[in-house]
Design goal:
The protein has about 350 residues and is of the alpha/beta class. Helix content is about 35%, strand content about 20%. It has 13 helices and 11 strands.
């Protein structure tokens, strides 16, 4: 992550230098965050405008954060393009860090002196916006939310990538990640499982050993063909069904006590991801388990990152985290309906 410090003299007088510095740090897959152009401050307008222009030209993603908007605006204010808004749900560490940072900004959050004219600049009503557990952003004018990747992307990938384009079978990284995912399942067996985005079926065969009935779906017919053949070769056709399905639009009917979302959520646009999570929640039995595992690094062309996917999942109503595993490369979360009962407690090992 790179941060650019704006000189005390502001940026309006040296736009070319600012643009050059941003351009050197920006490329496809970069997330570029800058002040909102309509915030009512000249430096914010310049910095946001330059950031949006560089992002549009370089293939980066750009989000703009408001600051003074919370001072002069009001709900429904027609001066603010709310329809271009999006938000980020913060975890406890991020909320704590933000509050500590705000406490250090004494020139804005406390009176400069007891003399008239030196009163606190930001009152409680404005500060309340910065104390929330979400951050609000606006997409630049002319931009639109990234759409979910379509079947064409995956068909081309399988066509050009050979028999195992992801390296599921050969890479130790993939083998270890699958083993950790299987080990995270809180029960030995499940009645009815759903694997969203099963790809060529490598993990499907391993999941089948934990499910009486498993439905494995994928958007790409090429992938399903390989998965179906792999399942048959393993002698598991009697307990594993495969189905072409575009998620979330073709989410399968029925109830599941296990739903696996492994390396699939970041292919969704924001709206489709929220819809997918809602459909997962609606299909989950009362004792159901959701297991999600996603790559954390930025990938050019993917609508979301793994971290964004897991933040949406962890913010979903009626789902609570039973287990969380975090590495530099991937996140693994196990979510259940409340109340959360540990594996040891469910097995009678603890009160």
């Amino acid at each position: 992550m790179h941060r650019l410090r704006i000189p005390d003299g502001g940026v309006a007088g040296d736009v070319a230098a600012l643009e050059a510095r941003i351009r050197r740090l920006t490329g496809p897959g970069t997330l570029l965050v800058a002040p909102w152009t309509g915030d009512g401050h000249p430096d914010h307008e310049v910095a946001g405008t330059v950031a949006a222009q560089v992002a549009a030209q370089s293939g980066a993603r750009c989000l703009l954060y408001p600051i003074w908007l919370w001072h002069w605006s009001h709900p429904g204010d027609e001066r603010v393009p709310w329809q271009r808004g999006t938000h980020l749900v913060l975890d406890e560490a991020a909320v704590r860090g933000k509050r500590e940072a705000m406490a250090q900004h004494v020139s804005q959050t406390g009176p400069l002196s007891p003399h008239p004219g030196d009163e606190v600049l930001l009152g409680a009503a404005v500060l309340a916006h910065f104390e929330r557990e979400v951050e609000f952003f606006l997409r630049p004018a002319g931009s639109a939310p990234a759409d979910s990747l379509g079947v064409e992307f995956f068909e081309q990938f399988y066509d050009e990538g050979g028999e195992d384009p992801w390296g599921f079978e050969d890479r130790w990284y993939e083998q270890r990640k699958r083993a950790l995912t299987l080990a995270s399942l809180p029960r030995r067996g499940f009645r009815s499982g759903l694997e969203v985005g099963c790809s060529a079926g490598v993990f499907t065969v391993e999941l089948a050993g934990r499910c009486e009935d498993l439905l494995a779906v994928d958007i790409a017919p090429s992938a399903l063909g390989r998965a179906t053949a792999r399942v048959a070769q393993a002698g598991l056709s009697n307990r594993v069904r495969t189905q072409v399905a575009r998620m979330p639009q073709e989410f399968p009917a029925g109830e599941f006590d296990l739903v696996v979302l492994s390396e699939v959520g970041y292919y969704c646009g924001h709206e489709d991801l929220r819809d997918l999570v809602e459909r997962v929640r609606g299909s989950l039995t009362q004792d159901g388990v959701v297991v999600a595992c996603h790559w954390r690094h930025l990938v050019a062309g993917y609508p979301l990152t793994g971290d964004e996917v897991h933040r949406v999942l962890r913010a979903a109503p009626d789902l609570e985290v039973l287990a969380h595993h975090e590495e530099e490369d991937f996140l693994l979360d196990v979510l259940v309906r409340p109340p959360v009962v540990s594996v040891a407690r469910a097995g009678g090992l603890t009160p």
